[in-house]
Amino acid sequence: MAVRVRVPTPLRRFTAGVDEVPADGASIKAVIEDLERRHPGMRERLLDEKGDIRRFVNIYLNGDDIRFLDAINSKVKDGDDISIVPAIAGGR
Questions:
Q1: Could you tell me the CA-to-CA distances from 27 to 9, 10, 14, 75 in Å, in that order?
Q2: What does DSSP assign to residue 91?
Q3: Are 11 and 42 in contact (CB under 8 A)?
Q4: pLDDT tens-digit readout, 27-67
Q5: Could you write out the three-class secondary structure of 26-84?
Q6: What is the number of other CB atoms lying within 10 angstroms of the CB of residue 80?
Q7: Which residues contact residue 51 at a Cβ distance below 8 angstroms, ignoring those fewer than 6 apart?
Q8: How many Å is the maximal CA-CA distance in the chain?
Q9: Separation between Cα atoms, residue 32 and residue 41, nearest integer Å
């Protein structure tokens, strides 16, 4: 299943500077594994040691935060859009 993954600037060094890449998989987890196969180094930036999404990484499936869906097991289908958005901390 081909989906489109939008890659944030800090991770583009793994995609040769490309801001949007295709990936295959039936779930977010499978898509991340495919991203790792195509662009080594991505998985460890997205997942922690337990295989969960890192605390300061947000992933959106068609505009919906996967934390409010089925998290890493959220199902994807052909044509879906996935956006990886690093969390930004700030304030006083």
A1: 23, 23, 21, 4
A2: -
A3: yes
A4: 999 999 999 999 999 999 999 999 999 989 999 999 999 99
A5: CEHHHHHHHHHHHCCCHHHHHECCCCCECCCEEEEECCEEHHHCCHHHCECCCCCEEEE
A6: 18
A7: 29, 72
A8: 44
A9: 11
How high is the pLDDT of residue 62?
Answer: 97
Q: Is 12 helix (H, G, I), strand (E, B) or coil?
A: helix
- Strand 2-6, strand 81-86: pairing: parallel
Place of tokens 């949007």: 20
Contact predicate 25/5, CB 8 Å: no
Asked whether residue 78 carries a pLDDT value surpassing 80, the answer given is yes
